[in-house]
Fold this sequence. Notes:
The complex is a heterodimer.
Chain A (H helix, E strand, L loop, with lengths): L2 H14 L2 H35 L2 E6 L5 H9 L2 E4 L5 H6 L5 E4 L4 H6 L7 E4 L7 H25 L20 H8 L3 H26 L3 H5 L5 H30 L16 H28 L3 H11 L4 H9 L14 H11 L6 H27 L8
Parallel strand pairs in A: 1-2, 1-3
Antiparallel strand pairs in A: 3-4
Chain B lengths: L1 E10 L2 E11 L3 E6 L6 H8 L7 E6 L2 E2 L4 H7 E4 L11 H11 L4 H14 L15 H12 L6 E5 L7 H16 L3 E6 L2 H7 L2 E6 L2 E6 L1 H8 L4 H9 L8
Parallel strand pairs in B: 3-8, 3-9, 6-7, 7-8
Antiparallel strand pairs in B: 1-2, 1-4, 4-5, 9-10
Amino acid sequence: MNAVLVVFLKEVVENLRDRRSIINALVLGPLLGPLLFAALTSLMITRELDRSEKPIEVSIVGAEHAPNLVAFLRQNGVRPKPAVADPETRIRLQEEDMVLRIPDTYAQAWSAGKTAQIELLYDSSQRDSATPVERLRGLVQAYSSQNGAMRLMARGLSPAVASPLIVATRDQSTPQSRSGLLFAMLPYFLILSAFMGGMYLAIDTTAGERERQSLEPLFVNPVARSRILAGKLGATFAFAMASLALSLIAFGYTGRLIPTDRIGMVLDFGPRFAATALLVMLPLVLLASCLQTLIAAFAKSYREAQTYLSLLMLIPMLPSAMLAVVPLKAQAWMFSVPLLSQHLIVTRLVRAETVTAQQLLLCLTCGTAIAAVLAWVTARVYRSERLAISG
Amino acid sequence: MIEVDDLHKSFGAVKAVDGVSFVARDGEITGLLGPNGAGKTTTLRMLYTLMTPDRGAVRVDGIDAQRDADAVRRRLGVLPDARGLYKRLTARENIEYFARLQGLDAASMKTRCDQLIAALEMQDIAARRSEGFSQGQRVKTAIARALVHDPRNVILDEPTNGLDVMATRAMRRFLRRLRDEGRCVLFSSHIMQEVAALCDRIVVIAGGRVVADGRADELRAQTGAANLEDAFVHIIGSDEGLAA
C-alpha cells in the first residue's frame, strides 16, 4: 500500500476513536454555526416584526390638553400610559423609551389656528427605541397634515397648495438582496466550521505526536517525510471538509426554521448552494489545513499549538466584520484573495446572485496556488532535524 | 554490520559528538557505554539517519547512510530514546502501522506480527489499546514495531530504562536471542552492570569521543584495574554520571 495512504488511514482511524476530535469536527463544528445563525437571525427578525406591529406604549404628559390627538393616536395603535413625573430622568435611566409631552398652551394655540407644539422625548443612543419613535413621529405628522388639509379646504384652497413637492421612494432591493445584508456573517460560520474540523488533527498529527514521543520512531521508517506530511495533511483536510459538508447540510435544515418569509426575504440553502459553496471553500480549507499544521509544527507543545490555532480562528472573522461595517463594492482583484473571495462568493450565492465563471476560476486558482506554497513551506519545516525531537 | 567513521555533530557552540568511530559486527552485541550527556543518543540518531552528521560517515551493511538513507532504514530496526505509542490504537495496530510503512505485504505482515507477539510474550495485550500500558508493555510494543521488518541490524537507545528487574531480564534474553540469530545488535546504556552482563564488545564514550573500545577483559587489562567498574572510572576519568 502507498505510504501516503497508510499514514492517511491511520490518522483517520486514530482520530475517529478520539472523542475530542469527533465532537469538534463532526458535532460542534458543523452544528454551532447553523444553530447560532438560526437563533440570531430568528431573534432579529422577530424583534423587527414585533417593533413594527405591536402597539406603541408611550406615556403622555398632559393628555387632557389634546383629547382629539390622543384619540387619533389611540385609533392608530398607540396605547397611552399614564403621565410620569420628571420624564427626562426616567428616559435617561431607561425606565421609559419615550414620552410625549403636551403643554397646557396647546389647546389655546390650536384654537387660534397657530402652530401648536408638542414634545417627543427620547434617547437616540438607545437603538431599541428608534423604530417606535419613528412610528410615533409619523403618526403625529399624519395627524398634522390631515388637519392642515382640512383647514385649507375650509378656506376654499386645495391641500396641494401646501405641498408643492412630494418624494415617492422606490426601494430597488429584492428579497434576496435584503437577506444578504442580514446574512453577512454566514461565510464566517462556514469558514469557522472548516477551521474547527481540522484543528485537532493538525495539532494531534504534529505537535501532539511529538509531545507523545512517537514522531521520532515514525521518521525512522523508510518513507520520505514529505510523504508522511502528505498523509497527515490529507487527514486534516478530510476532517475539515467533512465538517464543512455537515455544516452545509445543517444550514439546509436550519434555514427552514428561520421565518424569512415573514419579512419577505428568500434564503437559498439548497443543494446547488451547498455544492458551489463546497467547491469555493476547497482551496481555503486546504490552505487552512497547511497553515494549521505549519503553526502546530512550530509550537513547542500541544497546549501552545492549541493557543495559536484558537487565535488563528479569529482571522477569518476579519472580512466578515470589515464588510459588515464598510460595505465595499466588489472589485475584480478581490476574487483572487483567499478568505475575501470566499466571503464575496458565498454572500452572492445566498442572495441568489450570479457568480461568473471568471470569478470562480480566479478564486479557485489563486487559493490553490497559495495553499500549494504553504504546503511547500510546511514540507521544508518537516524536513528539519529539530522537528522530531521532543525536549 | 554498522561502521561508524569519524562522526562530528555540533549544536551551536556545543560539540555533542566530536570524532566517534567504531564497528558493530554481526552476531555480536555491542554496547555504547558513557555517562549522561556523553553524546550516545546523538551518535545513535546519526546512525539511524534522523540527524545528518557535520562530518564523517555511517555505513550499514556497506551502504552509506547519507547517500541512501531509505535503504539504510530498511536494514535497521530502531528503538529510539523516544518510544511513544499511539494510545488509541491497539498494540497490534501499532505494530502493523510500522509494518505497512516498511512496505510489508499483508501476508508477511501477519506472520511477522504473530512471531513477534509470541517471542515478546505479549499475547495478552495485543488486542488492547495501548492507553494505560505499563512501561514494560510499552517497551515490548515499541520493540515489536521496530523489528517488524526483520532487520539485520538492531539499534536500541537505553532499552532497559524504566524497566523492573523481571522485564530487564526478559529484555536481556531477547537481545541475546537476536544476537544468536546472527544480527548486529548495538545498544547504549549509562548503566555499567548492564553492559558488563550483556556485551561482547564495549565502546566507551565520554565528552563526545570514543575513549575505549574492546572486550571486557581487554578493557580490564588495558587499565590494569581489578574489576570492570574501576576500569570504567579509570577510562572516563571520573565516576560522575555512571549510575550503579
